[in-house]
Specification:
homotetramer; about 190 residues; mainly alpha; Tetracycline Repressor, domain 2; 2 domains; about 80% helix; DNA-binding
DNA sequence: GATGAATGAGCTTTCATTCAT
DNA sequence: CATGAATGAAAGCTCATTCAT
């Protein structure tokens, strides 16, 4: 009595977990099938190729991330807004173990051998940055230098990605809140300078 | 000291080039042998496994990066020093096509299936951050809040990694100098605020 | 007697078309099901195996061919009969695109891995040749050497199969009417020689 | 101490034998490897794909056939030449068990899913027919109608292929020498008619 | 030092077939 | 009648690794 969506969902989740753990190339369809408690044949009943599974994982992942980004950024538009940018960082980074790894692997895959995936990611990054920039413009009251805001939007996105990378490397305990405060300072200073 | 080192060097360079282009998993020993104009057997005369070749590539890569990081940071200690932090960014990012890709692939490899490699990278990241922090302390004249400088050092390293990722995704033309200026502003502000 | 036969007929026609296009081994049951707009399960309601479908196709095909052969040969018994043997060739060859390919594939299948099919074809070939021989005897007025007529019947059948093969290979434009004339000449000569 | 050519030769012969027995699609690389007493990996050391193996078989096969065709036809140019056309048939057909089957399977493969192979065969068929036509012109002393000779060349080639097919189907005992005599008659008649 | 030959495990994918509903 | 879900064996192919010479 397994329903269509159920099995497909199980495959998707298994594949996500395994890819998050081992990376795209190191996760075989046999792995996914075994982890999902189905046969390799069933995999192909729901997906037409490994590539197809990865595309689905990427879609789901990008949707989740996008929702998270929007949620974070939209919340910043309140009154004591800039300070809540802390959340942008902390919230996003706190999801590292569940999504950060898969984010990294998918990006590696996208850069090396999956042009379609690269385009998907490229578009999302643009989208995220545009949204962030719009919110920054609102926060700054629209009177700031356009190029400075542009730079700031690039910078904020980079910081997040860079911190995800560092956290995955487990090099050091990262002082997220200190870094967040540092960033807030930067923004506030720029804002009040005018 | 003739053919021996020479051949090993050729292998190392070939492998680096190929891995930078295709990633670790997608680069086969056959690829490396062909590109090096030697036989697969010879590969095993110089290296005991594929893993061994990657370790050597990582060593070389980390040495190069470390030298670059030190060079950059040491130069910042001049008088109008903070402004030359621009260089930290621009210089590092400008080497993207040659080292950025291999950096990403090695990190992916390190995160997923090569604990030894992960430890190697983790140590280097700590080392780089310590160096950077020392230079920041010098630049700030030692009177700043320690935690703020700590945070700043994390932040600067993150930005670089994040920008490398974005540049590899080719999502947008990244305004490096604007971002650099933005960062300099941040540091200068903090410095003069006291 | 409604949907039952109808569906089975659709399956048969779809399978014939696909096998004519792609050959037996390259035509999957999934292909046939999709082309018939039914599910794979339904296929098994009407046929117990792929082998079973092919047997049915062969039956139908052999029936069609036999009818065509008989039609042709029977027409030759008129007065200026031998000349209309042209038709035997031209008519048969003109149906190449629709039946020639399936004929070839079924014969290949019969030769390699389907003994039952081989026996079916063998019997039909005997039958066709007997019929042809009878007609030749009639045409020759029964006074000819039996072995020569026997040989002629083998020869005529061979020519047709050989020409089908060549036409499928698309090596050259085959001068069917010239060849037909050549054959008529042969027969007429033999006939009048006595 | 297996030499390069030796192993490749073994593979080629094994593959030929198996394909002659089972056809192209039904002969797996595992079959070939097992029959050759080597591993599947070794197969790929000598050939880059299954397609590659088949191409090699086809080359060898076509070379053998071409040599046989030339040998036969060239011998016909003697004095009592036309009668030795018997040989064209008998010699060619007598090689059925060794080459006829493979000929059929390769042609099936060529027709259905290997355009390159089809072109190879198409060219050879043209070549064979040209050679045969030249010899016929010589035999006829050059005074015959060109179109009649053309037709005759098509006809002779068709007969051979058709007889091969029938012999593989094992429908009946084929009276090769009677058929040959019948053909010789045809040619001689045409020749002396002028 | 260097090589070519050989291997076997594992990869992605295909497909005829089964069966509960 | 008809289906969608599931299967497992087998296919073509890749690749790190071994080893005699």
């Amino acid at each position: 009595m397994k329903s269509n969506n159920n099995t497909k969902q199980i495959i998707l989740e298994s594949a996500s977990k395994l890819i998050a753990k081992q990376g795209v190339k190191s996760t075989s369809l046999a792995d996914i099938a075994k982890y999902s408690n189905i046969s390799k044949g069933t995999l192909y009943y729901y997906y037409s190729s490994k590539y197809d599974i990865i595309a689905d994982i990427a879609d789901t992942h990008l949707e989740i991330i996008t929702k998270a980004v929007l949620d974070c950024v939209k919340n910043v538009t309140g009154d004591e807004d800039t300070f809540s940018l802390v959340q942008v960082i902390v919230d996003r980074i706190s999801t590292i173990s569940s999504t950060g790894r898969i984010h990294m692997y998918l990006i590696c895959e996208a850069i090396t051998e999956n042009e379609a995936l690269r385009l998907q990611f490229a578009e999302k990054y643009r989208e995220w940055r545009f949204t962030l920039r719009e919110e920054l413009i609102k926060a700054f009251g629209g009177i700031k230098d356009e190029r400075e805001i542009e730079a700031l939007s690039f910078l904020l996105i980079s910081v997040v990605d860079g911190l995800v990378m560092q956290s995955l490397l487990k090099a050091e305990n990262i002082p997220y809140s200190d870094i967040a405060k540092c960033l807030v300072d930067t923004i506030v200073t720029k804002k009040t300078r005018d």
